[in-house]
Amino acid sequence: MIIVLKPSVTPEQVIGFTTKLTTDYGVNVNRWDGVHSTVLGLIGDTTQVDIEYIEAQDIVESVRRVQEPYKKANRKFHPENTVIKINNEVSIGDGSLHIMAGPCSVESEEQIVQIAKDVKKSGATLLRGGAFKPRTSPYAFQGLKSEGLDLLKAARKATGLPIVTEIMRTSHIDMFENVDIIQVGARNMQNFELLKELGKIDKPILLKRGLSATIEEWLMSAEYIMAGGNSKVMLCERGIRTYETYTRNTLDVSAIPIIKKLSHLPVIVDPSHASGKSWLVEPLAMAAVAAGADGLIIEVHNDPPHALSDGAQSLTPEKFDKVAKKVFALKEALSNT
């Protein structure tokens, strides 16, 4: 349930009213202070809340019930866009465009440090790289694990780029203490025990959409994290499984404006995993920016033919530089219209 208070309401009245709602109806109340009004979001069993009584209060402007099962991720509860700050330097969701770039898998210190330097030179503001790799085949390269995390930190030290990497299980959370953004992969989007634990930490989470997940299921997974107290969630559209087999997945461009309408959370797009083909990364990245994405996550490798994972969809640093220039130019053009 959403309650919009009148602009003339005083802080004391808001506190008193909120306390009464909690006491009388046993609900949790989220408060959002906007420029022109204060919004209260009631979370819990609101079936017993007397709407006519609420509407009769002098300080109340309007009341409406929310039908969607996700509350904290819902734009109705939080009209303004969420802005997530990383290291007080990068702000995602404020209207700017950010690129997370780097290899699918961290393979060596020389590799990850050089790629970090290259992508930073081209305008990337965050370094992505896999230390723990979920693979379809148990015989494929599974990542360098904890050593990979150490190498990512070495690359961060060398370049200053915040690092983004994927977590696989709850027991690894302590290992990710010095990771700037924790990525939850598509296969773990509905690993609810992991999501609950990530809700208890104060760290940005990049939540990838499941292979066949609906938008509501995706938002409900974000809700799991936010319900635990962690509001620093970014949603990553990385393509979904459809009947089409030419590409690795099908990029759901329509999900970007839909999420922007339904939720206040930032949206990142992964054109690399969506296509599985390096030559498709550029047009899909352009489409994502045109549709309103807050950022891109792009795979970059210094030697794609010999990459230990996902070489076919990885850009060389030289090609990434060209793509980055185009997407930033497009973003600037859109901002000036």
Structure report:
The chain has 337 residues and is an alpha/beta fold. It has ten helices and 14 strands. It has helices at 11-25, 51-55, 109-121, 146-159, 192-198, 215-227, 255-262, 271-275, 278-290, 317-335; strands at residues 2-5, 28-33, 38-43, 60-64, 84-86, 90-92, 98-102, 126-128, 163-167, 181-184, 205-208, 233-237, 267-269, 295-299. The radius of gyration is 21 Å and the shape is elongated. The relative contact order is 0.12. The model has no long low-confidence stretch (mean pLDDT 95).
Map the helices and strands.
Elements: E1 2-5, H1 11-25, E2 28-33, E3 38-43, H2 51-55, E4 60-64, E5 84-86, E6 90-92, E7 98-102, H3 109-121, E8 126-128, H4 146-159, E9 163-167, E10 181-184, H5 192-198, E11 205-208, H6 215-227, E12 233-237, H7 255-262, E13 267-269, H8 271-275, H9 278-290, E14 295-299, H10 317-335
Parallel strand pairs: 7-8, 7-14, 8-9, 9-10, 10-11, 11-12, 12-13, 13-14
Antiparallel strand pairs: 1-3, 1-4, 2-3, 5-6
